[in-house]
Amino acid sequence: MNVLIVEDDVFFQKFYSTKLGEVGFRVDVASDGNQGIVKAREFKPDLIILDIIMPNKDGFGFLQDVAKDESLKKIPILVFSTLGQEQDVQKALKLGAIGYVNKTFFDFDKLKSRIEEAIKAKKP
Predict the structure, then answer these.
(1) What b/e sequence results for 56-78 when a residue is b if at least 16 CB atoms lie within 10 Å of its CB, and e otherwise?
(2) Residue-wise pLDDT tens digits, 67-123
(3) Closest CA to 8 of 43, 57, 48, 47
């Protein structure tokens, strides 16, 4: 199972790459939305974990670009962000995210179960 983490925070990149690798996922990372689009095309992930607040292209811009790209739009995207206001959650879901996890209350086991749910509920 391939997972792409689109996240600018190096701590979260390393922590989740390591933890997901330990439970059998192949992981690649991108540091912003622009790099995320390129990596998604190359890596062909089964799931994308996406931060919202990033340099160059934020998560909302990334979601908009993915929705327009036939080769990417069926990949489930799980938003993992500190933005937790209802309007941000609804915006991400409206733009195509399959779920939203507040990074402030992060817990690897919860994230892992959300990843498994998102992969099972893959976009048609």
Answers:
(1) ebbbbbbbebbeeeeebeebbbb
(2) 999 999 999 999 988 877 889 999 999 999 998 888 776 678 877 888 888 777 765
(3) 57
Read off the pLDDT of residues 22-70 as tens digits, 9 standing for 90 and up.
999 999 999 999 999 999 999 999 999 999 999 999 999 999 999 999 9
Residues forming beta bridges with residue 3, ordered by sequence position:
27, 47
Q: Which pTM value belongs to this model?
A: 0.90
Place of tokens 């925070």: 9
Rg (CA), the chain: 13
Which amino acid is residue 16, in one-letter code? Y
How far apart (Å, rounded) are the C-alpha atoms in residues 46 and 31? Answer: 18
Instruction: List 111's β-bridge partners, or say none.
Output: none
Using the structure block, give the residue that is written with the tokens 């959300």. Answer: 114
